[in-house]
Design a protein that fits this description.
Layout (H helix, E strand, L loop, with lengths): L1 E3 L4 E4 L5 H9 L1 H4 L10 H17 L3 E7 L2 E12 L4 E8 L8 H11 L1 H4 L7 E4 L6 H9 L3 E3 L2 E5 L12
Parallel strand pairs: 5-6
Antiparallel strand pairs: 1-2, 2-3, 3-4, 4-5, 6-8, 7-8
Helix pairs in contact: 1-3
Length: 169
């Protein structure tokens, strides 16, 4: 599975991404705000990829690598789908040298607009993200994408007509 934006390829994570994902997730600037903790081992990363792939093949979750000019610069995913509430969570990480360049906005817009194709078994009506209020880059990204703060989470409600899905502009 691959998605394309103007500058990026979003492709399904695989085991060949282990080193790049290990490097990204263990970067102190990235790990400061994520919930994976610090000092992830290669075994942790491979287990994470295995879980991501299982969710993808079940049609209820995904992690995609962000590739620019053949280099993995980050990842973005949808996880923790709840059928009862039709809710799924968005998570992402990006190498710091690529921050402030619009890559994650581009990737998130692409992913959210392809939701039904990527997750055919998940009837998603709401996408949520857990973000520290001190993570101003993520707060700004989510606000730009149309997420609103509700109950300490950022939420994006999707309507069936898709007329209000994010444009990324």
């Amino acid at each position: 599975m691959e998605l394309h934006t103007q500058r990026l390829i979003l492709r399904l994570v695989n085991y060949r991404d282990s080193r790049a994902l290990h490097e990204i997730l263990n970067d102190p600037q990235v790990s400061y705000f994520n919930d994976y903790g610090t000092d992830l081992t290669m075994q942790d990363i491979k287990a994470m990829i295995q879980s991501d792939l299982e969710l993808f093949y079940q049609g209820i979750g995904v992690r995609m690598m962000l590739v620019k000019d053949g280099i993995q610069i980050g990842s973005i995913g949808l996880f923790d789908y709840c059928e009862d509430t039709a809710k799924i969570y968005l998570g992402y990480e990006l190498k710091p040298k690529h921050w402030q360049q619009g890559y994650m906005r581009e990737a998130a817009t692409c992913l959210l607009n392809a939701l039904e194709v990527i997750l055919p078994k998940a009837l998603v009506e709401q996408v949520s993200a857990k973000v520290s209020p001190h993570n101003t880059r993520s707060v700004n990204l989510l606000s730009h994408l149309g997420f609103e703060i509700r109950h300490s989470e950022y939420q994006l409600c999707l309507n069936k007509s898709k007329s209000k899905l994010v444009s990324g502009n």
